Amino acid sequence: QKQRGRSAANEFLNIWGGQYNHTMQTLFALFKKLKLHNAMRLIKDYVSEDLHKYIPRSVPTISELRAAPDSSVKLDNGPPFPSSSGVSNSNNNSTSTAATEAIPSLESLGNIHISTVQRAAESLLEIDYAELENATDGWSPQNRLGQGGFGDVYRGRWKQLDVAIKVMNYRSPNIDQKKVELQQSHNELRYLNSIRHDNIVALYGYSVKGAKPCLVYQLMKGGSLEARLRAHKAQHPQPALTWQQRFSISLGTARGIYFLHTARGAPLIHGDIKPANILLDQCMQPKIGDFGLVREGPKSLDAVVAVNKVFGTKIYLPPEFLNFKQLSTGLDVYSFGIVLLEVFTGRQVTDRVPENETKKNLLDYVKQHWRQ
Fold first, then answer.
1. Does the predicted TM-score (pTM) go above 0.85?
2. 166 is in an annotated binding site
3. Catalytic residue status for 272
């Protein structure tokens, strides 16, 4: 690069933040892991002041190191760097932690600033709030697609595109719960912005400078798989999915999960695979949505990590996660197995089957007959 008259450092940072879509906090965490303390000092002005405590207060000179006995001069490496995912490695030696796992979570940093969100959304389009307000006819109730604890989802027409706009209301009065909701929004931005796949919902942009933060997604005109599986019970019944459609939806979902688990150095574990989070386009092709609970798993697909608490939808979670809080890609595989059970039986996992013979739900019923 010097021969071209360019700064090697600038070229590295351009590749780091542009081509690989990493942040300065990620680089700071990597320098911490590699004990490159001078490098940490060089970029300290570009990361949160809360992270400055991880820079050693003093570094002995070469002459001091030469003159002192091996044990008399010690480097102050600072306190342990927090994990972004709240997980710790198990005793399995094959488990390793990726550099990006060392990014402190939003919860550990306290207040969440717009700059934090913008770093997570690097290279993603920031949309003016007024444009989204116009796209939804002033957040008209007629354009509301759904409502939840996190906020509302609206249908909108933006830039000649049909979009789904998630408006974050953070209704919970509990401060800790609000932090969790903010962390989930941050996850959506961070991970959906860094991965692209035909079977993963597309995130078009975000807005954080208006009345409420918003995320803008591709509109999935086919609705959710959950709604289509229950379409015959709806107020306006739709034809049941054909066997070919069920197979195609299952195959596409499997491809999306496989991509999450294998596309990066460390697998991404979705954590909440269920019919409600499998969205369908107008051609009935599936796309996995809702990335609020995504975690980075161990690099080895056979390894597990221990987490602090259980997350996800209980009926879709494997016993080892519910009972022992052991996180691995197997969580998504198990959840997808439950989804397949629902897709090909046409029943909800909580249904009582057969109604006249037993009070067991579908999953318990299948487990019983599987053993037989």
1. no
2. yes
3. yes
